[in-house]
User: Fold these one by one.
Assistant:
Number 1:
Amino acid sequence: MSISEAEAKVMEALWAQAPQSAEDLFARISGEQDWQLSTLKTLLGRLLAKGAISADKDGRRYLYRPVLERSQYLAEQSQSLVDRLFSGRLAPLVAHFSAQRSLKPDDVAELKALIKQLEQP
Amino acid sequence: MSISEAEAKVMEALWAQAPQSAEDLFARISGEQDWQLSTLKTLLGRLLAKGAISADKDGRRYLYRPVLERSQYLAEQSQSLVDRLFSGRLAPLVAHFSAQRSLKPDDVAELKALIKQLEQP
DNA sequence: GGCAATCGATTACACGTGTAATTTGTCGAT
DNA sequence: ATCGACAAATTACACGTGTAATCGATTGCC
């Protein structure tokens, strides 16, 4: 099962720090996200059901921690986009960004460094 | 309003060739997508409602053509992913792919060529 | 002109999602 | 033992989406 966008925001908060209680998460997420505590609880429940997080009892409350790794989530999402829209190849995506002129000089420099690294393993 | 994944498949078929009738599209999409004609009609209706395509009467049929451009759709989708998962920067996404070892030598070569081009406009 | 074929339009329906209120269960304090 | 606080679980509900059947209108043929 894949996680939704709202659920992903909860995951981000857990990837930033874990474990956290629902209250912790609520405090951390408020400001970013204008949710009722109840909403967050619903999302935690759904993430638990999906196996994306785990919960350990800590006194009267639960402490939640990610099971799904951020890097795995990134991989799924990125791969899916590249597959769906760019025939599974990364270069066309970069070309697209370049054509849109949304590459800052910083990006170009960073990319260049990356490529260099890839060429000399 | 944004278009859904099933709707995007219809758009792809229209981007590949336009204008096309519902029947044309159905023929072109069958094999990729195991839809009933009725399903395709529903999706065309929704795309029309969203303004992503237009329809011109051609005798008893309609001919559909894209209004939303593919490049704009690519831009929205890519930007959204990069914003949500990579702080809006492209380089980290490429780095992620590289770390996943999902870059083939071809890709690296192509990227290198791209970068080169970006440096000497 | 009536009937059948053919389209598009309308209606259907289950499921995921965003958002939340209400209910339930438990622990601590009186 | 009871009551209140609090946390989690359950229930709620509207909306988008995937998938499709059916309805209704138009048109070509006999």
Number 2:
Amino acid sequence: MKDKLQAVRGMNDLLTDQLPWWQLVERSACTLFADYGYQELRVPLVERTELFKRSIGEHTDIVEKEMYSFEDRGGDSLSLRPEATAGLVRAAIEHGLLHNQKQRLWTSGPMFRHERPQQGRYRQFHQIDCEAFGYEGPDVDVEVIQISARLWRMLGITDVRLRVNSLGTPESRRQYRALLVAYFERHRAALDADSLRRLESNPMRILDSKNPAMQEAIAGAPALADHLDPDSRAHFERFCDLLGAGGIPYEVDPRLVRGLDYYTRTVFEWTTTALGTQDAVCSGGRYDGLVAQLGGDPTPAIGWALGIERIVGLMQAAGKAADATVPAVYLVLSGDRAERAGLAIAERLRDALPGAGCLANMGGGSLKSQMKRADKSGAQLALIIGDDEIARGSAAVRKLRGDASQQDCPLHELPERIAALLGRKLNSRSDDGR
RNA sequence: GCGGGCGUAGCUCAGCUGGUAGAGCCCCGGAUUGUGAUUCCGGCCGUCGCGGGUUCGAAUCCCGUCGCUCGCCCCA
């Protein structure tokens, strides 16, 4: 094992056996967003470091110690994106997408954070992102959550619950924060080391401390809900009402805060107990100030991100199967002339039956070993062509599943015969079907 | 950044209190002529993570190191 080239820590290869789940998630998301009228947008993996400092917050853990930042050859400080929203907002402003118009968008791809890897947390991880720009009412808050809820249904995920909260406006939050700091200052003795640190950096995070010894002090702290500004309170009440009307079960969690500075008003998080300590599966919220903060016209916005690794983990933990795609036909080619004819025969089958899958044997091998490969491939049918068959212009079609019957078939009738055996329709077009 | 657990064939693992490695799977070949999944036979596969120490002798003990993993933190 020595001197072996290894992947970078926390950046995982996705081997073929994992891909069926990933493809299921990605395909589902793609049709899901289309059904809600959300359009896909793609932005670079690398942005100016400044963008993330200004959006996520300079004093957040993400920016302070988790970003992959570097200087490029021109001397600019760039960073691999630790999340998608900042880049999306930047792109929307830059291309005038928010000028007198609303946008409902989604994107997906890898994100990067230099954290200690553990279950459900990796240095390169993958998110699907949903964002709605220009809608200020709580109706769209509910819509984006509906999208996530439908995705769980599509994927058969049940072990998740929704928690919601409101952070109010930056002004009301600033006032509340001062109260909170004052309270915890008075109870300094009850705080653990982490919370003392948070008291300086992000006091609201003390509220979601997992330390049991802290719970009493936290319970006595002023609640954010009691200090919301009237508009935010009305927004939140309407939001909860609409959520209920939309039939989405939720619970209000006054301790739900977010790690990114840009959130305002509605925040929410889907959590699970099935994935160990990394329990957030999908989370998001409103960020009404961010667009203006990054230089765009003032534009209300809301969005969420989900972690694909965690979604896949949930499906696997629940025992959901995701079947690998399997070719319908395995082409056994025995002998020189058969090998020579085989490539063209395979192409004709693919023309006639696009999507069915025709796996041609490559690299020779005895008939026996080719039959073994045919069986292993999972194919329904083995199409056996040897020099004898070539000589008489036919092929042997053998069923590999169920009754192992075998029949001879003239080469020119192969597409029809195979289509019939597979219960598929022939491609009517004469080209390659694209 | 801080703790715990673990590192033996491609994979899953066995190897008790030290005597220089084993199984299953996979892969390849064979068991009558050109036909798979079962069965049988054979073959392939390791500097026991790496470095050092103790010892006549270490995969087995000790130290260090790297890696993986789980938790803290953070968060999707």
Number 3:
Amino acid sequence: MPAVASFRSERATPATGLTRSRRTAAGTHSPLGQRVVDALRKALFSGSYKPGERLVEDRLASEMGVSRVPVREALRVLAAEGLIDIAPRRGATVTALSSVAARDTIEVRATLEGLNARLAARRHSPATAAALESVLAMGGRAMAKRDARTLNTLNARFHDVLANAGGNAVLAEIMRTLRTRTTSFFAEMSRKRAKETWEEHAAIVRAVIDGDEALAELLATRHVVNAGAQVIAAIGGPAQ
Amino acid sequence: MPAVASFRSERATPATGLTRSRRTAAGTHSPLGQRVVDALRKALFSGSYKPGERLVEDRLASEMGVSRVPVREALRVLAAEGLIDIAPRRGATVTALSSVAARDTIEVRATLEGLNARLAARRHSPATAAALESVLAMGGRAMAKRDARTLNTLNARFHDVLANAGGNAVLAEIMRTLRTRTTSFFAEMSRKRAKETWEEHAAIVRAVIDGDEALAELLATRHVVNAGAQVIAAIGGPAQ
DNA sequence: TGCCAAAATATTGTATACAATCGGCCGGAC
DNA sequence: GTCCGGCCGATTGTATACAATATTTTGGCA
């Protein structure tokens, strides 16, 4: 069974003679390559593919009902994000994050989340405060309901909102990438740490709203370190 | 005149009947896509293409003597590195770093270089010390000769060696990317600041070798901020 | 003259075809 | 039995062809 659903069930009717008929036709199709990226990213996050597993272009193309060209381009993009590895002439494999790489990633993330929280505190405004409080409230409700799935989504949302509050687009983009690379690991154990996670989120928000740069930085950094320590303990131990 | 040289002057002789003749033939050709990436990166750094300029696939393909396929894949890679922008159906353009984006990039770079210097100081060893001193010495010689071109190369080398000394591969990769994005700006004015640059380099190395984490971090961060301030003053001013 | 629509052109997006290389499998020599 | 060399299937790399969309040009009209 294909791990990803085909989004082009029928052929693009090449027989139809409507060359350049109506423009904009029905809905602006985003390029297939982009859609393949999204589909693969989703599949990777959901754990459909295991680390180290080979991603054969032809198979992916069939599963999605497209040719190999968009698949290849999608694979390059995912490789740039660090989600897969591509070896020349040997194809793509799902990145198997070593415990060393995990530790390195967390170390960088901790620092950058700290910087971002500091910036957010420096530039705090009523608007960002409201956005942060909103996500925080939703997180609280989801936790009360033990809704782990929503909680994961909200966790990502929280970090996105916080990144926006920092006001540094370059920083936000890098943090997003680093986060996606470790998503699978953190998702695994986030259930166990849900309570602590959202308490830490709340504390960070408070510091940001208070404009306390140093505290915001400290808490955000520690937040990543805390979660990271648990991840590393779970998967890496001394050496993987 | 093409901005990049063709590395395939003659066709791949498709008429020749040698199907799978000798294996490995003459030298292991790296994939064309990779070579196109290298060629384009070089061209972008050398300033052959101006910010905002369109990069038409067909033209690039002709100039390099390859088909559009490797060119397209190369463009995706460069887009992921932030060197170019790709808009669907509208092609690729050379990234025009706004003054805001420049400031953001420098802010992140400053923090990460600081983190890396701290790590390098923590993990300092005779081997890394020797490597750092070596680049430092070469930089001194190049500066004595007023060899601006070599100096630029050595500057990149210095930061690479320092990144290695930090021992965090993820961090090193991110810093490398950030550095490439701002290369053109820094190259412009590095001549004026050559003396200060290498004095700062020397100070950082000393702190690293001494294992003085806090000082190494401070100096490395300040190094980026100092150079960055000059860049921003030159290009951005209050608003670009 | 200036502006709008529609054809003509340029360029990107996708599919298919073929070439090149990798990895495993088989057979023979020692 | 094991190791080496070469065939064979599987898979990636590249080129070409065509389809779809963006951009420019052109022509008519107010």
